[in-house]
Amino acid sequence: MQPRVFIASRHSTERSALRLLLPELDSQIVGEAADWRAVLVSAAYAKPDVVVLDWNVMGAAKVSAVSPLRQACPPALLIVLMSRLDLRQQEALGAGADVVVNKDDDAGCVVENLRYAISLRSAPD
To answer: Taking the mean position of all CA atoms in its chain, how far away is CA 94?
Structure first.
């Protein structure tokens, strides 16, 4: 069964790139949003298995914003995209992200990191 993926990013070019890359990973895109309020409403409705989320879409209160997303779609694997993996990576993981992917890597590397992350969703417990 293809994992159902929801895309969340403020940048239309990033969402477009993800729409092109995700089918390569044998996944089904079930929705996308460009602002945080729309992410919470649309993701809850779409019931995704995976949420690919640009860390900046949440605005200033990133750490506290993850909790409502977890409540909106509790079983979803949360993959956070960010540039420059630094202390923010630990912040994202501490806030509840399952995986952090560096979006500034070349496309092939991003695809492989997303492939690995999505495979975690289908791995047996």
So the answer is: 15
**Half-sphere CA count of 93, side-chain side, radius 13 A:** 9
Q: What angle do CA 120, 124, 125 make, to 5 degrees?
A: 95
The vertex-124 CA angle with 122 and 125, nearest 5°, equals 120
Please tell me what DSSP assigns to residue 48.
Answer: -
| Segment 97-110, tens digit of pLDDT | 898 888 888 888 88
pLDDT in tens, 58-98: 876 667 778 888 888 988 999 999 887 777 888 888 888 89
CA of 85: how far to CAs of 5, 50, 90, 92, 102, in Å? 23, 21, 9, 10, 6
Q: At what angle do helices 107-122 and 12-21 cross, to 10 degrees?
A: 70
| pTM of the entire predicted model | 0.90
Q: Which structure tokens are listed for 94? A: 């501490």
Q: Using an 8 Å Cβ cutoff, are 65 and 18 in contact? A: no
CA angle 90, 91, 93 (to 5 degrees): 60
